[in-house]
Please model this.
Amino acid sequence: MAVERTLAILKPDCVRKNLQGEVLSRIQKAGFRVLGFRQMRLTPQTAGAFYAVHRGRPFYDGLVEFMSSGPCVPIALEKENAVADFRKLIGATDPKDAEPGTIRKLFADNKGENIVHGSDSPENGRIEVAFFFSESDLV
Ligand code: UDP
Ligand code: MG
Model:
């Protein structure tokens, strides 16, 4: 299996609930290496650009508002099969549909405020890591 990068974002609801440490601990225990880590507040423009693929969807404006509503924590991760393994760890987008024991099932309130982002393909993993981190910051 190939070593891949994937981008996690601990979303503003995760930070508001003070769950950054709890969620990162679960990510690390699952074998992901942290290459980069920062706390920041996204502007609506930056949040909109990050989620540009969803522009035009009914949930887009609410998503941009939520993602810029407070601090978040982008984390660059690396692991064999990182993209699929991370999505398995976090569970389905809607916590109602997420498997027991997944991060979203355990901690998320609803489909919009669902604690954590995960990249959806190895290609997007690299693109999304580069959205928040320059190569020289990945160690
Ligand atoms: N989202 C939402 N309503 C929806 C679908 C998605 O609010 O019906 C939000 C949710 O925060 C989700 C993000 O938009 O995590 C991106 O959606 P995507 O379908 O890519 O889900 P993900 O890859 O995060 O599981
Ligand atoms: Mg997605």
User: Anything to note?
Assistant: The chain has one domain: 3-137.
